[in-house]
Amino acid sequence: MTIEMTTSSTQEQLPKGRLLKHEKLAKYTSWRVGGPVDQLYIPEDLQDLIEFIKTLPESEPVFWMGLGSNLLVRDGGIRGTVINTKGRLKEMSLTGDGSVYVEAGVPCAHVARFCGERGLTGAEFLAGIPGTMGGALKMNAGAFGGETWAIVKSVEMLDASGNVTHRKPDDFKVSYRSVKGFENEWFLACLLTLQQGDTAVSQQKIKGLLEKRGATQPTNQPSCGSVFKNPEGDYAARLIEQTGLKGYAIGGACVSEKHANFIVNTGNATAADIEALIYYVQDKVEQQQGIVLQTEVCMVGEAI
To answer: What is the Cα–Cα distance from 295 to 284, expressed in whole angstroms?
Structure first.
């Protein structure tokens, strides 16, 4: 492996993966904000990741990051170790019984396309999720009426000692944008159960969903995806728009004019700007609509 030197971080040589010290996380998040992490590890593959985890003290804080969506890293950064799976843990294949094996680093959109090309139906909604399969498993991500855990057959998990276990959906408490159970373990991979259908129909559905996403969401600006969960029987975007907050800005963070449940970085936002805007929106919606919006985005790290 070639050792690269940058002004923002130093890099050490490991057997296979890359370990970066004091790396700024802004370039790894879809909002393009975030302070430095003590160390960032980019594994070569799944086995390399398992071996790296075994080298860490079990008390070491470990945080996983895929495409960096649905995530706000505060400006003070993260203490501990961040595992970055973007472009890694990318294996995906059909198994003998027709299930689909997907490692945690595979982008959800790739899963939708892989399944659609093989005439497997039920995963088309994943085309609308701007994250990886690992993140989708962690939060039961959904889009266009579909949810991740509705198609999960089993998952492969890793604990802080480097042990790998296999678990079933019944082992978890799964609900809307929430998955509880085994909080000290991380998702490595999953098996998906889908139905056999028509390839052309599935691909057309994916195309339609992507067109709808492009028409209704600010896909050309840095955002995290949806910021707030939809209240039961209603939509966060409707409530925010009804409160008159479309276009409202704090610093470089702005409520999208295209979709009110998106906060975009207009170019110079800090994580503090975004977090302040999140709380402002919550406060105003509660005052005017009588509903407390719950955040879907995960906020981590230390403020400056």
So the answer is: 14
Write down the pTM of the prediction: 0.89
Alpha-carbon distances, residue 261 vs 79, 140, 208, 253 (angstroms): 29, 18, 21, 13
Enter the DSSP assignment of 295: B
Which tokens hold the place of 171?
């082992």
Catalytic residue among 32, 118, 177, 238: 177
226 is catalytic: yes
Counting other chains too, the contacts that 142-148 makes at CB distance below 8 Å and 24 or more residues apart are: 142/176, 142/177, 143/209, 143/213, 144/209, 144/212, 146/122, 147/176
Within the chain, what is the greatest distance between any pair of CA atoms?
57
Is the model more confident about 8 or about 71?
71
Which amino acid would we find at residue 292?
A: V
Which entry of 124, 226, 256, 275 is annotated as an active-site residue?
Answer: 226
- Axis-axis angle for helices 108-117, 199-216 (nearest 10): 150
pLDDT tens-place string over residues 23-67: 999 999 999 999 999 999 999 999 999 999 999 998 999 999 999
Catalytic, 238? Answer: no
User: Could you say which of 23, 124, 275, 296 is catalytic?
Assistant: 296
Q: CB within 8 A of 73, min separation 6: which ones?
A: 25, 26, 29, 33, 34, 35, 271, 300, 301
Helix (H) / strand (E) containing 284: helix 271-289
302 is catalytic: no
Among 15, 25, 89, 21, residue whose Cα is nearest residue 300 = 25
Task: Say what the pLDDT of residue 15 is.
Answer: 57
